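Protein Entry — a single chain follows
Fields — amino acid sequence, structure tokens
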Amino acid sequence: MFILVLAIVLFSVSLLSVFSAPTYRLWLLAIAVTEFSWLFALFAVLLIVVAVSTDVYVLPVAVIGTIAFLLLCKPVIQAWLLAANLKRHFAAAFGPRSTFLYGDNTQQPFSLLKIFKGLGRTMVAHKSMPYATVGGQILALDFYPAQLSGRRPCIVVVHGGSWSSGDSKQLPQLNSHLATLGYNVAAINYRLAPQHQSPAPVNDLEAAFNYLRDNAEELNIDINNLVCLGRSAGAQVAMLAAYSKNISGLKGLINFYGPADMVWGYAKPASKLVMDSRAVMERYLGGGYHQVPQAYANSSPIEFVGPKAVPTLIIHGDNDVLVSPGHATRLNEKLTAEGIRHFYLRLPWATHGFDYTLNGPGGQLSTYVVDRFVNQVCNYNC
């Protein structure tokens, strides 16, 4: 009976590779199920082998285990199919380049072997440095120096955490990867809600850019080639700064599953079983939409997208239960309408935080387009 129960549990878990997670804890599990799906698929095979070898519940375990195995293979299959045309689709958006000054031009969008390699790359040593003091609070950033000599572009990373948590240590694997390719990376801390509300984090991000620009010679930063990357709430901060502030030298923006339209997002909240997204926004903006409507409009990056907006890379999963993929769709449409160069990597199986590992299906594809996007915008018109 125990082996049959395990098979049923595994089948239930495998459904997270198809359907959106209904609760917060299941969302966390969904990240593992979709990005480490091979581990769960291997367990399904093991259950079938054990059932056959012990002659216990062979038929039901075999049927349930096989269905679970196929569902768990779905993210890998979808990633492989998406990868087949990814290079062509990206080139259609940004054009092919004969030169590839940063990174590996031979890298493939997706490798089946790479999914077995764990979380990501070897970590690059970084140092913490204060970049501003606001109201007695010292704000610091983690600086990952480019692992190639000379003046190099700099990518400023803004962490997520519902505007009220998180820090610069969040998901450092991509920072190290980019530093290895030859980019400087600055992962910043910013003031958090509810003590500090919008636009405090945006002002902090602008201060970080100013600090990096003022210390460019010491840090070997090419101030004419800056890129901003944000995740989740940090992506809202990054987008708002990129679209509404005149940041000198900013060449591109990378949006990992960020809320682009705060007004629409308040009207279409996440399930409270996953996250009370309205309460999150109220803490950040000082009240509900009907109380402070202008704060929502002023904090909606999509409202500031115009003909002079910077090139943008959007990355979002269709099964995101914290920040609706509708934000990405709406931003994609606005950028298209304004004629802004951009690319939308839409991951059908992925949920919020899929880039926890660079070697999972979502991690590989997103890293591939990030590499090419940054290389493209930092060398545009060179």
